[in-house]
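Tutorial handout. Part one gives the primary structure; part two gives the three-dimensional structure as tokens.
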Amino acid sequence: MSAPSSSRSPFLAGFLALTPLYLGIAPFAVAYAVTARAAHLSLLETQFMSLSVFAGASQFAAAGLFGKSAGALAIVFTTFLLNVRHVLYGLSLAQQVPLSGWRRVVAAQFLTDEAYGVSIAAAPHLPGGLNFAFLLGAELSLYAVWNVFTLVGSLAGAVIPDPQAVGADVIFPLAFLGLLVPLLRGRLELLVAVCSGLLAWGVSRLFPGGLTVLIAGVGGALLGAALSTRRAA
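Part two.
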């Protein structure tokens, strides 16, 4: 990732920092809309979920469960497992961005994997470090494209091919790999990344995706904290 331009406002810099990921986000917003419509959600319901929930994996899961006439408890529990990783993101951001009052609520509502990754990767290049304006710009950038292409998918989904069928699903792993590499600044970070990846691979053989992300995230965070504390001692 290139360093954000110092001549831009922090909000605009954050907004533009997400644009390279649009290529991966847009087709999956369309795919979500197609899934939701296939589950007999109306255009309004499909769009409202993107506007209010704004959580890609959870929206896919919820749409699928709606299509199977699942109960409210099953839908809430499934989406909770998928989104609980955001607690880890919040704890990480709290160490870098002073947030209070309405700013904390807004940042939490619009927080996503991509916005978190881009913001953390950009933090060392920002004058004065990461701030609320940059974070909000990154979050709303994704929010805008996700909702625009949800609408596109709702209106034209029947003539749009499945993103997986054209190989678009490879973009997300490559994007996150691109975010990870600049953060591997030493042996400690590399060790934690490798161990977390191996843990995620092992857990994925036993549990669904939501638990895999949670267990690997917590395990990696604990390993990083333990190694950092030992090195500082």
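Part three, for discussion. The two ends are 33 Å apart (CA to CA). Residues 83 and 94 are 18 Å apart (CA to CA).
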